[in-house]
Specification:
This protein has 186 residues and is mainly alpha-helical. The protein contains 8 helices and no strands.
């Protein structure tokens, strides 16, 4: 968020939102890093054991698959903040500034509506998944399905955190860790 911190109650509320946002983003990133690291270690160890001993960790492939689902859905929001998703932006750069802002508001409304719908539909999916268990781990599939409502709810949060600068001038956050333009060119 780039707005200047004001004084009084509005400034305190904005400071509180920023603190919550830093915490949400930090936990989001930490989970993504931990999930990716766990997947890499499990797959490496399982494949190594398969070749060295003709035996493998039976649950590693299944758990890695479920962590990948979580990683993808939890990663939607942080990637959105950086403008890293595929987008067609020809129209809003070709029209006058006011029309571009209106188009960006429409884009935000569509994205928010889709994410809220997916979060709501995901809750129904979770509710229907408690009795189904995974083949190897024998845990309720609802734990895997929770990635949908949690991931899309977090994406709404992240969308709200970039709303003002995106609508104003189409800008996203920047990061020292990732440049979406460089990543897409590689």
């Amino acid at each position: 968020m780039t707005a200047a911190v004001g004084s009084g109650a509005a400034g305190s509320a904005l400071s509180a939102v920023r603190a919550i946002d830093r915490a949400v983003l930090g936990v989001n990133r930490a989970f993504m890093i931990a999930a990716l690291a766990a997947m890499a270690v499990m797959v490496f160890v399982s494949v190594s054991l398969r070749y060295l001993t003709d035996d493998a960790i039976l649950w590693a492939e299944e758990l890695s698959r479920y962590l990948m689902i979580w990683l993808c859905l939890i990663g939607v929001g942080p990637v959105l903040r950086l403008g890293g998703h595929v987008a067609v932006d020809n129209l809003h750069v070709a029209v006058p500034p006011l029309a571009a802002r209106v188009l960006r508001v429409v884009v935000v409304a569509i994205m928010a509506g889709f994410a809220l719908y997916m979060a709501w539909a995901g809750l129904g999916y979770v509710a229907r998944s408690w009795r189904q268990t995974t083949p190897v781990l024998h845990i309720p599939f609802a734990y895997v399905a929770m990635a949908v409502p949690i991931g899309f709810s977090l994406s709404v949060w992240h969308l709200l955190m970039i709303l003002a600068p995106y609508v104003r001038d189409g800008s996203f956050e920047t990061s020292d860790d990732l440049n979406p333009e460089e990543a897409s060119a590689a």
